[in-house]
Design goal:
Layout lengths: L2 E3 L5 E3 L5 E2 L2 H12 L2 E2 L6 E2 L2 H11 L3 E2 L6 E2 L2 H11 L5
Antiparallel strand pairs: 1-2, 2-3, 4-5, 6-7
Pfam family, one: zf-C2H2
Organism: Cloeon dipterum
Keywords: Metal-binding, Nucleus, Repeat, Zinc, Zinc-finger
Length: about 90
């Protein structure tokens, strides 16, 4: 996992040269290169296990909020989410 600090304090990925403001963000990014969380159905790679879990729910028929990408198991739950979180206008 090669990386280098630039003069501005950014951390750069040694694989794809993307720049990150701190080492924590680089560490999360490196998971993409390491392939630790991969969807077995479509081979999409995720940096976080939670993101993979939400993605898998979409394969199983869940619905996703277009505003914040929250995943809900049913359309009714998505509507409730929008009402509470986004204060959906009627």
């Amino acid at each position: 996992m090669a990386h280098a600090r630039t003069h501005r304090g950014e951390t750069t990925c040694g694989v794809c040269n993307k720049r990150y403001g701190n080492r924590g963000n680089l560490k999360q990014h490196m998971a993409l290169h390491e392939g630790r969380t991969t969807c077995h159905r479509c081979q999409k790679v995720f940096a976080h296990a939670r993101a993979l879990k939400d993605h898998m729910a979409l394969h199983d028929g869940a619905t996703q909020c277009l505003k914040c990408h929250h995943v809900a198991s049913t359309a009714a739950n998505l509507k409730l989410h929008a009402k509470i979180v986004h204060r959906a206008k009627r």
